[in-house]
Amino acid sequence: MSVKAISDYITQPKDTVANFNGMQVVYVHWAKHLMYCSPFAFLVSPDMTLAGFFAEVLRPAIKDHPDSTRVDFMEAQWLLNGQGFSPTPEAALLAQGIDHKSMLTLNTPGLNGINGCAS
Protein backbone atom coordinates (compact mmCIF):
# COMPACT_ATOMS: atom_id res chain seq x y z
CA MET A 1 0.00 0.00 0.00
CA SER A 2 1.42 3.34 -0.93
CA VAL A 3 1.67 6.11 1.61
CA LYS A 4 1.53 9.81 0.93
CA ALA A 5 3.07 11.56 3.91
CA ILE A 6 2.95 15.27 4.57
CA SER A 7 6.41 15.11 6.14
CA ASP A 8 9.38 12.74 6.13
CA TYR A 9 8.12 9.22 6.72
CA ILE A 10 10.67 7.42 8.85
CA THR A 11 8.68 4.47 10.22
CA GLN A 12 10.03 1.01 9.43
CA PRO A 13 7.31 -1.42 8.37
CA LYS A 14 6.95 -4.42 10.69
CA ASP A 15 5.64 -6.78 8.05
CA THR A 16 8.76 -7.14 5.93
CA VAL A 17 9.81 -10.65 4.94
CA ALA A 18 12.76 -10.40 7.36
CA ASN A 19 10.27 -10.53 10.23
CA PHE A 20 8.60 -13.79 9.15
CA ASN A 21 11.35 -16.23 10.22
CA GLY A 22 12.04 -17.60 6.76
CA MET A 23 8.39 -17.72 5.74
CA GLN A 24 6.40 -15.42 3.49
CA VAL A 25 2.79 -14.34 3.10
CA VAL A 26 1.03 -15.20 -0.16
CA TYR A 27 -2.46 -13.95 -0.97
CA VAL A 28 -4.87 -15.89 -3.18
CA HIS A 29 -8.14 -14.56 -4.55
CA TRP A 30 -10.56 -16.94 -6.23
CA ALA A 31 -12.47 -14.81 -8.74
CA LYS A 32 -16.25 -15.28 -9.00
CA HIS A 33 -16.33 -17.15 -5.71
CA LEU A 34 -17.46 -14.58 -3.18
CA MET A 35 -18.19 -17.24 -0.59
CA TYR A 36 -14.61 -16.25 0.16
CA CYS A 37 -15.18 -12.51 0.23
CA SER A 38 -11.54 -11.52 0.47
CA PRO A 39 -8.25 -13.06 -0.57
CA PHE A 40 -6.81 -15.81 1.57
CA ALA A 41 -3.54 -14.98 3.30
CA PHE A 42 -1.23 -17.95 3.68
CA LEU A 43 2.03 -18.20 5.58
CA VAL A 44 4.24 -20.50 3.49
CA SER A 45 7.85 -21.34 2.85
CA PRO A 46 9.29 -19.64 -0.23
CA ASP A 47 10.89 -23.01 -1.06
CA MET A 48 7.55 -24.84 -1.19
CA THR A 49 6.71 -26.09 -4.68
CA LEU A 50 3.60 -24.77 -6.32
CA ALA A 51 2.24 -28.34 -6.51
CA GLY A 52 2.75 -28.63 -2.76
CA PHE A 53 1.10 -25.28 -2.23
CA PHE A 54 -1.94 -26.38 -4.23
CA ALA A 55 -2.23 -29.77 -2.50
CA GLU A 56 -1.34 -28.87 1.07
CA VAL A 57 -2.54 -25.29 1.39
CA LEU A 58 -4.94 -24.03 -1.26
CA ARG A 59 -7.03 -27.17 -1.89
CA PRO A 60 -7.83 -27.63 1.83
CA ALA A 61 -8.60 -23.91 2.17
CA ILE A 62 -11.30 -23.94 -0.53
CA LYS A 63 -12.67 -27.42 0.19
CA ASP A 64 -15.98 -26.16 1.58
CA HIS A 65 -17.00 -24.52 -1.69
CA PRO A 66 -19.12 -26.78 -3.96
CA ASP A 67 -16.95 -25.88 -6.99
CA SER A 68 -13.72 -26.86 -5.26
CA THR A 69 -13.77 -30.51 -6.29
CA ARG A 70 -13.88 -29.51 -9.97
CA VAL A 71 -10.96 -27.07 -9.85
CA ASP A 72 -7.95 -28.09 -11.89
CA PHE A 73 -5.27 -25.68 -10.75
CA MET A 74 -3.09 -26.37 -13.76
CA GLU A 75 -5.92 -25.67 -16.21
CA ALA A 76 -7.02 -22.54 -14.38
CA GLN A 77 -6.10 -19.04 -15.46
CA TRP A 78 -3.72 -17.31 -13.09
CA LEU A 79 -2.60 -13.78 -12.45
CA LEU A 80 0.42 -12.99 -10.34
CA ASN A 81 0.27 -9.45 -9.04
CA GLY A 82 -2.15 -8.55 -11.83
CA GLN A 83 -0.06 -10.01 -14.66
CA GLY A 84 -0.66 -13.24 -16.56
CA PHE A 85 1.13 -16.16 -14.96
CA SER A 86 1.83 -19.71 -16.13
CA PRO A 87 2.58 -21.85 -13.09
CA THR A 88 5.25 -24.52 -13.03
CA PRO A 89 4.11 -27.09 -10.48
CA GLU A 90 7.52 -28.49 -9.51
CA ALA A 91 9.24 -25.13 -9.13
CA ALA A 92 9.48 -23.35 -5.80
CA LEU A 93 7.21 -20.40 -5.16
CA LEU A 94 10.05 -17.90 -4.96
CA ALA A 95 11.69 -19.27 -8.12
CA GLN A 96 8.48 -18.38 -9.98
CA GLY A 97 8.36 -14.87 -8.64
CA ILE A 98 5.82 -15.61 -5.92
CA ASP A 99 7.45 -13.70 -3.12
CA HIS A 100 6.37 -12.04 0.11
CA LYS A 101 2.92 -10.47 -0.20
CA SER A 102 2.39 -11.65 -3.77
CA MET A 103 -1.22 -11.81 -4.91
CA LEU A 104 -2.31 -14.80 -6.95
CA THR A 105 -5.68 -14.55 -8.64
CA LEU A 106 -7.35 -17.80 -9.61
CA ASN A 107 -9.86 -17.79 -12.45
CA THR A 108 -11.68 -21.03 -13.14
CA PRO A 109 -13.60 -20.75 -16.43
CA GLY A 110 -16.88 -22.63 -16.27
CA LEU A 111 -16.94 -22.50 -12.49
CA ASN A 112 -18.82 -19.37 -11.54
CA GLY A 113 -19.79 -19.91 -7.95
CA ILE A 114 -22.87 -21.41 -6.36
CA ASN A 115 -25.60 -21.68 -9.02
CA GLY A 116 -23.50 -19.44 -11.26
CA CYS A 117 -24.05 -16.34 -9.12
CA ALA A 118 -20.38 -15.75 -8.27
CA SER A 119 -20.87 -16.72 -4.67
Description:
The protein has 119 residues and is α+β, with helices and mostly antiparallel strands. Helices cover 11% and strands 21% of the residues. It has one helix and five strands. A five-stranded mixed beta sheet has the order 2-1-5-3-4, covered by helices on one side. A hairpin with a 2-residue loop joins β3 (77-80) and β4. It is globular and about 50 Å long. The two termini are 27 Å apart. 12% of the residues are buried. The mean pLDDT is 94.
| Beta content | 15-25%
Average pLDDT reading? 94
> Major beta sheet, specifics?
5 strands, mixed
Binned, the helix content reads 10-25%
Topology, number of strands: 5
Integer-rounded radius of gyration: 16 Å
Terminal residue distance? 27 Å
GO molecular function: phenol 2-monooxygenase activity
InterPro entries: Phenol_hydroxylase (IPR006756), Phenol_hydroxylase_sf (IPR043010)
Protein name: Phenol hydroxylase
Pfam family, one: Phenol_monoox
Write a short abstract of this structure:
By secondary structure, this protein is of the alpha+beta class.
Write the layout of secondary structure elements.
Blueprint (H helix, E strand, L loop, with lengths): L23 E7 L9 E5 L5 H13 L14 E4 L2 E3 L16 E6 L12
Parallel strand pairs: 1-5
Antiparallel strand pairs: 1-2, 3-4, 3-5
